[in-house]
Design a protein that fits this description.
The complex is a heterodimer of chains A (about 110) and B (about 110). Helix content of chain A is about 0%, strand content about 55%. Chain A is built from no helices and 11 strands. In chain A, the strands form 2 sheets. In chain A, strands 2, 4, 5, 9, 10 and 11 form a 6-stranded mixed beta sheet that branches. A 5-stranded antiparallel beta sheet of chain A has the order 1-3-8-7-6, with no helix packed on it. In chain A, a hairpin with a 6-residue loop joins strand 4 and strand 5. Chain A is globular. The N and C termini of chain A lie far apart (about 35 Å). In chain B, about 0% of the residues lie in helices and about 50% in strands. Chain B is built from no helices and 11 strands. The termini of chain B are far apart. Classes of the chains: A mainly beta (about 110), B mainly beta (about 110). Chains A and B meet through strand 4, strand 5 and strand 10 of A and strand 4, strand 5, strand 9 and strand 10 of B.
Chain lengths: ~110, ~110
Amino acid sequence: QKEVEQNSGPLSVPEGAIASLNCTYSDRGSQSFFWYRQYSGKSPELIMSIYSNGDKEDGRFTAQLNKASQYVSLLIRDSQPSDSATYLCAALKEGNTPLVFGKGTRLSVIA
Amino acid sequence: NAGVMQNPRHLVRRRGQEARLRCSPMKGHSHVYWYRQLPEEGLKFMVYLQKENIIDESGMPKERFSAEFPKEGPSILRIQQVVRGDSAAYFCASSPGQFNQPQHFGDGTRLSIL
């Protein structure tokens, strides 16, 4: 079983809609979760981090964590064509251990 | 630029040559991580270093690959006798080392093996 799983997509949403990206993890020792955005040919860029159950909002982005279900999600409100990218979910077990990444979900926002 | 600096951005080598990839962490960060990304794949952990110490190298192939983070200067990922399968993007990330602090990535080195 893969440690962090994401649907590879592509996920297509119209401009202005809400994009919902999901991620599940298998290691219950995972404590911190991160969403990175990666444009084609570029490096991963941190957009959200979440450490406790519930929702965390930052601008158009909302991260949700449910540790009982081992589920993390990212909502992007008012999606823009510039949001089109691959979104990587990553889990961290302890403070300084390596991140475990999912393969990423490719999002396409259609103008 | 206070971000993670990697060089070169692109590196072309012939089979059998050596590749050296360099990474300078963000100012104030003492923890460095190397990841490899193959086309259409996620990021795979290779090695985690602090100054003068390798903390975890469980993701790095036992042969041909080595990494260091000397007291002075950047972290180096070294690949000896490169093969076509080494072609990938190699990303370095750094963190300050405090609990739960996220890792920030450099722009990566795209390695191509002819």
